[in-house]
Structures are given as structure tokens and as C-alpha cells.
Amino acid sequence: MNAAVSAALAGDFLAVFPAEAARVIETMPEEAIAAQLARLPPARLVPVMNAMTPMIGAAVLQCLPEPARLQVLQQAERSRAAAFLAQAEEEAREALLQLLPAGTAAQLRRMLDYPEATAGRLMDTVVFSLPAEANVGRALALLREGGNRRVRLIKLLDAENRLAGVVDLRELALHHADTPLSHLMVPVPAVASPMDPQEEVVEKLETQDLDELTVLDPEGRILGVVRHHRLLEALKDEASLDIQTMVGAGREERATSSSWLALRKRMPWLQINLLTAFLAASVVGIFEDTIATYTALAVLLPVVAGQSGNAGAQALAVTMRGLALREIGIAHWFAVMRKEVNTGFWNGLAIALTCGIGVYLWSDSVGLVLVIALSMVISMVMAGIAGALVPIVLARLGQDPAVASSIILTTVTDIAGFFSFLGIATLLGSMLG
Amino acid sequence: MNAAVSAALAGDFLAVFPAEAARVIETMPEEAIAAQLARLPPARLVPVMNAMTPMIGAAVLQCLPEPARLQVLQQAERSRAAAFLAQAEEEAREALLQLLPAGTAAQLRRMLDYPEATAGRLMDTVVFSLPAEANVGRALALLREGGNRRVRLIKLLDAENRLAGVVDLRELALHHADTPLSHLMVPVPAVASPMDPQEEVVEKLETQDLDELTVLDPEGRILGVVRHHRLLEALKDEASLDIQTMVGAGREERATSSSWLALRKRMPWLQINLLTAFLAASVVGIFEDTIATYTALAVLLPVVAGQSGNAGAQALAVTMRGLALREIGIAHWFAVMRKEVNTGFWNGLAIALTCGIGVYLWSDSVGLVLVIALSMVISMVMAGIAGALVPIVLARLGQDPAVASSIILTTVTDIAGFFSFLGIATLLGSMLG
């Protein structure tokens, strides 16, 4: 065990910074983590497990002795406990649920029924709520007893137990004990239903600056609350998704998904990519005679396509991110395109220069240098235009600007690269000698 | 103006949901937004401008009449006002700063001195702080007067005006007016210095579940506070960064950056990519004789490389995201690789089948079908391995698993594709006829 790990496991550090401790000890093998954690009292074990990432936490949980395991499942946030159970094998999960108190087990089962990445799976089912008739004094008394430090908004219920509104905790500080909570109540800024996809949860988080999101059943009764840090996790999850969708790996796939899911989600896009690859190949086919005469062209073909592909990917990435962060909008298409044309032209010139030197040293042919230099500039400008416009056009068409954007871009840059390189070579054929 | 926009601008909606209103009206041209917003009273105008994205907000600000412009700069959050000013031309910025009250202008100037994407640029300089000797009653009285709804943690200062600790607002509710705040004070969980990069700010947000982060000068005096929603923006910004760094566009570049910055940041990677492209080309060069005999190989070469490139990019994207979200760690390298080998093999078989049919229809050559089918499976398995291992190895070496990962991957998939396709073709040369 290294120094950082032993420091992280030292009692005091663990008590004050459970999340940091979790980050550090996650680097150890699961059995070793479990062996260390099993020694802790529940009050220290539970916060660390709460902060553990689901996959590692689930594995550690399996290695813990049974009493500790049950303590974690009962005392950790419900959403975290459900995430741990979701990672376990069907049989192991059932065995654990049997051992838990009936109420806890029922709540966990209900959560596990909701699909992954929905509000129902992210919510915590332990909620602080009061009847709307209660007064400030009553709320303070209950808060003192419960010692629930997570409460920020007190939920008020009407006579039918439906959510009527919320009272901010700070209002309790500013008003007399006799004040009815209903006087301090404000409408709930946003609620979710348990089947709402994570996407919508994040959308609400962003537009409303929320700390928590109450999840209601169709009758308006509280099922749970998605809290601050689960909202943050969901936000991070969503924000990093473009990297997958741009290359045609589905939204649903995770690094921990089965090969079977990966296969099903990726295959359709690979088949579409094959179609576009044939399209690009047919461009090469047009110039088969030229290639037959100068096989050096076949050798250099991937260089031109590779450079314009990379340059286009850079333009695509920057533009897509700008759209995702709303730094630019569809309306800015011309400014973005102008920037990318400029960048493509000057980068193209610089690359044409280095590439030209390389090709001259290899082939000793000024004609070949001229062909690759010219086509490099042309195809890198085309790549810049495509990189800027593909996501903007997708957004304009009401599509996710990321979906398959990389596949569309590669088609454009391949065709532009092949056509310019082989086309110019055919035109300047006499110089290639 | 369409229905959504007029609804968004209707007084009531704007008052309750300034952030949503900002999202909707951002789709209009800047002059039109300004014309609409100029009619609003400051109490409605400022929250909408606060929620506007910096680039669009800055443009709108330029179009507003001067009194409204000054109101926004004075009353909006300092960090937002600074972001607007940062987008303006040097001269226009100075002119505006001259018109502002000296104190506000000095604060804004100081913020603009910090580099972009640092804590100093993200912070709000308006902070609610009290001497540690004050009691609960005094704090409540000041809160009632100020009506500052953003306060969550009261900062307590020592005799030298240094940050001594914080008191959670809920504690005010739970204690008597005579209680000295110093009794309720807890240590500050995390602070930042104004030059801290956004990366570190996000790191603290994630590990500590923070609502706000206090920014201190070297003497421990409060400079400002980075609040909840700026932290969220920073988190989103960081989480979406991999898409740029993987293709060698720098961390610093934005869709709104100049071509000159784009050129400088992207060029080095394009030159490195050129080097790797020459490496791949040299593989093709080995087989120049084979290509001279069968030019159909040159036509199909991009198909094999393109498919394995796309398959590898899918594996890379899913693995990189898993690492970024901490769903997997370096320790899971074998499980991830096994998944990708599996997926690559079965996807390879399926693509080999469709591709084989296509090639047979085009060339009528069973030999060519055999060559492309075999090399497709081999190169897609290789692509899967590379896609899984590149980010994991980068992380193991202590590097950012995203940086240039796509460039490294493409080199591997190109070489694997070219080598397997042309190598098998050379071995089975007699069958190609």
C-alpha cells in the first residue's frame, strides 16, 4: 500500500474528506479496499461508499462482510445503493434484498424498475416533507431532531399528500416560530417524473440553477428528490456524450456495457460508414488508370486524406463544443466558416511545405511535390469548411449536432482529398514522369 | 418574431424564468434582442442578461442604449459583466469602464487582468461577510435588509479581515439570536486562489460537493466567490473538452477564437500527424509492386483503413468517456480490452460479409473478396484493442487520456489496415488474377 493510500485511510482524513478518500483508495484492487473498509465503523464506512463510483463500489460491496454490506445498503443514499445493486448479478442482488428490511427493499426494488439514466434511478427516496399547515417552530424542531444536513428546501404537502410548494431553509431563520409555513411557501420551480430521461433532468438543472429536483408520481405525490451531486454527475455524463455519438457509438453504451450491446449499437453506423467508404473508393476508381501509371500516387494517397481528415476533425471538435456550450449558435455559421477557411488555408500551406520537402526527398520528383502541395491546401480548406458546417447544418435540421458528425465529415474529407490529389495528378500527368 | 420568442418576452414569463427566456431569445439577431430588451425595466433586464451566454450577451450589450448598458454592467454578477467586457473591443471596453462608478470599474479591471478560465475570472466579487464576533441576530438583521437571496454560507472574518470560517444559513434558523457566530463556525471545506485554473475549480467542485468556492488572496482575504451556476458552467466546459484534445486542438481554443490562435494550437499536432501519415504511407510503399500489378487494391485500400478507423474511434470514445466519468479505471484494462476484441471480431465479421458482397459485385474476383474480408476482421480487432488501450496507457503514463489519442489511434488503425490488406493480398497474389 503506498503512502497516499495509507494517508487516505487514516481515520481523520476519512471522516472529513470521504469523497477524496474514495478517489484515492479506488486505485487499489477491490478486495484490498474491502479489507481496509471492513475495519471502519458504519459512520465512516457509509460516507466513503456513498462517494465511490458505482462500478468499483459494487465490487467492493461484494467483498465486504455481510453486516457491513447491509449497513451500506441501508444507510447510503437510496440512489447509490440502487446503483450498487444494479451492478450485481441477479442472484446476488436478490439475496441481498431478502436480507434488508422490507421497506428499504421495496424502495430499492421500485428504483431498480426504472430504466438506467432516468430521474427514478437518480433520486433519493428519503425526503423531508411537512403538512402545509405546520409552522416555522415545528419545522425547526423536526430539523433539530433529524439532524439531516442535506435538507435545503422543505417540501410542503396538501391534504391529499401532494406537493404544494417548498420553503427555503433560510426563510426559517428570518421568520418567527408562529409563522405558518404556507405563508413562506413558493411554487416548486421544476419537478420531474420518474421516467424522465437524464437529458431532461440536466436541461432543468442548467436553465433553472437548481440544487435539487423533486420527482413526483402522476398524482403529484413525492417519490424522491434528485440531489445536487447526482445532478452534477448527470450533467457531466451528458456533457461528455458527444464524443461517443459523433463516431456512431450509441448514447446508451458505457465502458462497462456488454460486447453484445456495443455490437448492436455500433454496427448500424459501421455499415453506413462502409457505404460512404465505397463512395470514396469510387472516386479513387475514376483515376485507376492514373494510379496504374504512377503507383507512387497510391502510396501518398493516405497522406493527403489523413491530413485533411485530422484538420477537419479539429474544426469539427471546436465547432461542436462551441454549439454544446452555447458559445455560438446556428446564426454564427458564416463567422465560424470564415475562421475555418482561414485556418485551413494557412495550416494547409504550412503542411504543404513540410510534406513537399518530405516527398521531394523520397521521390526526387518536382511534379509530385507540386501535386501533393496543391491538393493539400485545397483539401484542408475543404476540411475546414466541412468541419464547421456539418454540426451547424445538423443543428439547423433539428438534429443533435454530434450524431454521426465524424462519419459524415470523414466522407467529405476523404472525397475532397482523393479528388483533389488524383485530379491534379491526372491534369499534371506530364510532369510526374 | 415567432410565437416562442414573443411568449418568452412576455413580462411574466421573463420575470419568473429569466434563464429560459434568455435561451429562447438568443435565437434572434442581436439587434432585435437589444431592441426588445431595451424596453424592459432594469429589474427584469438584468436577470435575463445574467443568463445570456457571454458571446451573444456581449453583442446585445453593444446594441443596448447607454443607460441600460451601464445598468447591466453595474447590476449583473461581476463575473458575467467581466465576461461581457472581455468580448468587447479594447476601445469600447475602456469607454464603458470610464462611465462606470470608480469602485465597480476597479473590480472589473482587476478581474479582466486574470487570464480566461481561472478562478479570478469566474468569481463574483460581491460577498456577504461578517466579523467573527457578530451574533446570529446581527446576521439575520443584515440578511433581512440586504435581501441577498444568493447567500448560503456566511463568511466570517478575523481581526485582520482574513477568512476565518463559514456559517451555514440553516444554523441561523436553529440557534438563538444571542449565539455568537463563531460558535457555529465550521472550517471552509475548500478555497481557491484567483490564478487557479478552471480545471482545479472543477476538481474541487466534484470531490467536495460544493455550492460555492471562496477565492482568497495570498494573505487570506476574500477576493470573491465562485458560485453554483458558474461552477456548473465550468464543469460542463471541462467535461466537453476531451472532444478537442483528442484530435489535437488545444484546451484554449473556443469556437469564437481567432484563426491565428487556432492556427498556432492546431499546427503542431498536424505536423506530428503528417509524420505518422508518412509512417503509414511507408507501409503502402513496401507493397508498391503488388499495387502496380493489381490497381484494384489501391481503390479498396481506403475502405479497409476507413472501417478500422471508425471502429477504433468507437472503442476509443467509449473507453475515454468511461475513464473520464470514472466508471472504469486503469485496473480494468483487461476487461475493457476483452470487450473490444469481442466487439471488433463480430463487427468485423458482419462488415466483412457486406463488404465482401459489394466487392464481389464490383470486381467479380473471389480472391479479392477473400483478401478484403480477412483483413477487415483482423484490422477491426486490432482497432478495438488500440481503441481500448490508447487512453488507458496514456492514463497509466500519467497523461491526459484524451490528448492526441485520436491521432495515435489513427496511426495504429491505418498501419494495421494497410498491412493486413496489402500483406494478405501479396500472400494470396495468385488468387487475385
Automatic annotation (TrEMBL), chains A, B:
Location in or out of the cell: Membrane
**Chief localisation class:** membrane
Keywords of the record, alphabetical order, are: CBS domain, Magnesium, Membrane, Transmembrane, Transmembrane helix, Transport
Domain CBS: from-to ranges: 185-243
| Matches recorded under Pfam families | CBS (PF00571), MgtE (PF01769), MgtE_N (PF03448)
Give the stretches traversing the membrane: 269-287, 344-362, 368-395, 407-432
What domain of life does the UniProt record list for this protein's source? Bacteria
Query: Which membrane topology describes this protein?
Result: Multi-pass membrane protein
Q: Which InterPro entries match?
A: CBS_dom (IPR000644), CBS_dom_sf (IPR046342), Mg_transptr_MgtE_intracell_dom (IPR006668), SLC41_membr_dom (IPR006667), SLC41_membr_dom_sf (IPR036739)
Q: Which family does it belong to?
A: Belongs to the SLC41A transporter family.
Protein name as annotated? Magnesium transporter
Q: Which organism is it from?
A: Marinibaculum pumilum
